[in-house]
Amino acid sequence: MCPKIFQGRNVGVSEETRKRKIQIVQDFRFFPRPERLKELIEKEIESKYTGYLQGVEQVDFTEEEKIEMDALLARGFLNWDKRDFLKFK
Questions:
Q1: 30: alpha, beta or left, given left = phi > 0 and alpha = psi -120 to 50?
Q2: Which of 14, 48, 67, 77 is 20 to 30 A from 7 in CA distance terms?
Q3: How far is the C-alpha of 49 from the C-alpha of 18, rounded, in Å?
Q4: For the chain, what are the domain ranges?
Q5: pLDDT by residue (tens digit) across 27-86?
């Protein structure tokens, strides 16, 4: 994930990068609390790239949140794709 420079705007994370990272959390992967997992992923992305933005308050991604995110990811089927889900049904 590389920061992308937008003309006339600050440097930040492209929407493509955000979508790719959030796509991990799909229904067929059976993650517990998927909305919380999406929130943690967004916060991690923001904390990594707020240093590039000017005039934006630093976002802290704590160690407890990292542990929580890792636990949520571990409880789902991260390597499943749609075909695996359809075979399971």
A1: left
A2: 48
A3: 12
A4: 3-88
A5: 888 889 999 999 998 888 888 776 666 566 677 889 999 999 999 989 988 888 888 888
